[in-house]
Amino acid sequence: MGGRLAGVLGWAGMTMVVGGVVLTVVRLTGVGSQAAEGFGIPVVLLLFLAFVVPVVRINIRRDRGSAPADDEDQGSAAGLVLRSLIAATAVGLAWWAFPTHFVSSSVSEGGLHLTEAFGVWGGIGAVVLGIVLLVFAPITAPGGGWKALLGGLVAGATALLMVTALTPLLTTWVEIEHRVAAAGEPDPFPTDVTRVGWSWEPELPIQEVGRGLRGPVVRYRDGFVALDGSTGEEMWTYRRSHSEILGSGLVPGDEEHVYLLYREGRATPATILVLDTATGEVVRERPLPEHEDADSWWRHVNAERMMGVEEDDEGGSVVGYDLDSAEPEWEYPLTREAGRVCLPRESVRTRLYGDRLLVSRTCLDEEHFDESVLESGETELTLALDRLGRPDDAERVLVVLDTMTGEELWRTEVEPSRRLAWDDADIVRPKTWSEGGPVVAAGERLFGLNTGEPVDVVPDHPEQEYHSYEMAPGTLAADTEGAVVAQEELEALGPWLLKRSDSDGEVVSSVEVEWGLGHYFEGPSAVLEGALVLSLNPPRTSEVVEAGIEEGERVVLVLPIEETDTEKAGTPRWIRFDGERLFDPDLGSGNVRHGVLSVPGAVVSYVDDGYRGDDLPSVHGLVP
pTM here? Predict the structure, then answer.
């Protein structure tokens, strides 16, 4: 290597080292202390190396006063090994500090966004390239003079600009994992299950499992994985492991779509993404509408709209934003009469189901409260409501809106609960095998979600007393064509009855279930046409102990819900998982929740994010 070329490369290396150090330090100080700690040790060591190498090389040249060609260690094996080790150390430190090694999806809690991490890493990359040039082509004044100096400065500055400009492009390589599936027809929902048909191993703790068009959709904290319900094979994946995830979920009442809200950097706008559950293809991807509290103001998302409640002194309004234009498409006012106060005071209860939005509010006269209570916080108001009871002027209003237009489809008034602060208006889980429409439950009354017409599908149980503020206990599934309920006999330790009813509330089938198993009716369940599938979560009962099931063991209970001519009608069946455990009894159950969900082709058994253990629990598909 000629002296002038060595000088140019040496000065280029010096320029890149100095520029890279400045960029790294400036960018790290601009992203917060917690984010800077993420780079920690490797960056500190690299910056130390960036200081030592130039100083050592310049001192060697000054002491020897020789050209590189005359340097005694330039061509020696020992010199080559030393230079290589220094270069390899710099590269290793840079790789240690590479953004994907420490940037997690918890950036919203104070970590570093991927775009910021790569900005820092651009400076680190420049430092490393500068060190490599310095150790292999050290600075030497006799090798090129001022021409080498100027050439090196220009070359180093150009390289520095290229590195810092091109490095952020790596985000498009590491940030998104997106695989799509070919279109296909789903298998039917099972009518009963008897065994484990397939198993799938998750990579991260599961946040939620929802029903897609062709099987379960697993929601991680950074995205989704969709499985084939019949085989458990992965169909499609969409994950943004290093973006800030503002929210994600499945659309209630809409098995065709899931959504993800994310942001790539603190200065970048949030984006909403909607995916097709059958193929994983992107249905739409648009910037979120600007809002003073854009991270949390929204409440509901479907394939066409994002909806939120905006409060003001006049009662506020429900606003629907178009996902294509990011502009407000409609606004539904939540006005209240003079002299009335509406509850909950700071948030209206809303429930989304497909393209229908249920809005529920309870209002009463202000005269029941002192002015100090009305001006106080939620705690004081709740205490006052508990003391108040249910005055005659209190009323609950149910409104259902079309999410596309904001049009009020129907409105009705129902008697509020005895605890005014309690609002149980909700949309009941429909039966998967029925063509009936969804229903709204408010107290003991049911209404068709689409029509507002009263629905009476829950079979009467005149000997059982119901609280006046809740739907009949034990209603497992209901729609306009019938219901599936679990009703307890009044005699002590009497059996439970699993009943199926028609659209008139008449019982069409009924089977007995042992009293102790009634504990599990309140937990997660999958209602099939011929059986009820229950996940066993604490507490333990004598029936579970008699079946030989150990504490913490993962088990699913299957109960027939149709009368048969065999003696096994209503007899529980246990599906076990080869001794797989939900928790260690010595450590306690923690927040672990064993859930089940019916999907096309199977009933899915899964364990959510509260699991304690080294290995993540598998997702199992139960089949006939």
Answer: 0.78
